[in-house]
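hey so i finally got around to running both of the ones u sent me last week. sorry it took forever, my laptop kept dying halfway thru and i had to restart like 3 times lol. anyway pasting them below in the order u listed, first the sequence line then the structure token line for each. didnt double check formatting much so if smth looks off just lmk and ill redo it

first one:
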Amino acid sequence: MMRPAHVESVAETFRMLGAQTRVRILDGLGEGELCVGDIAKAVGMSESAVSHQLRLLRTFRLVRVRREGRQAYYAVDDHHILELLNQARTHVEEGS
């Protein structure tokens, strides 16, 4: 059985993945790193709304940021997050 601290972290990860907006952002980042403006265009949201979601995703280590001058580029923190999304997508598509 998982340790209580791990159970809590896993539940928080799934909670972060439980919002359509965050799933769309992570899906877009699956193609590679993007700046906030490009993410906002891809998901059809304002930059400030995307920034807020990215801040949450960073807090839970689902995305990371790389700064280049004044520009910030975001990427999925590690391949496990994309694997979770792909497994969920496969599950949904098999049920259709």
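and the second one:
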Amino acid sequence: MTVDVKYRTTASATGGRDGSARTEDGSFAVTLSTPKELGGAGGSGANPEQLFAAGYSACFIGALKVAGGQLKLKVPAETKVTATVGIGPRSEGGFGITADLTVDLPGLDRADAQRLIDAAHQICPYSNATRGNVDVGLTLA
């Protein structure tokens, strides 16, 4: 697979799940903490699953807009994508993640909204990166 890279960014983490992460340009910095469900203390820091959920939901809206242009459908300004990301042990060993996207496209006909979601799932870089590796559920709100 060849990718014609148009943008590249760099971020670093220190301390693992109980450390911190920041982008090289300093535009984003976050304190990390391990959730109690994964044996951590919890705390006010974010975790990698939350960051993945935020990134996937934002990226999917971008993909909906591209799909809307291709399908000649206007994506409502109030569109909301909620990503729920889960983590846990895999039966094959190690850990895996799941992702469920709930897409709210207010004012769109349900058939058109579903066409947009299906097309966006083929366009979205997160969807393409996870396809075949992560169980991704798609729900029209």
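quick thing i noticed on the 2nd:
The longest strand covers residues 80-89.
anyway thats it, ttyl
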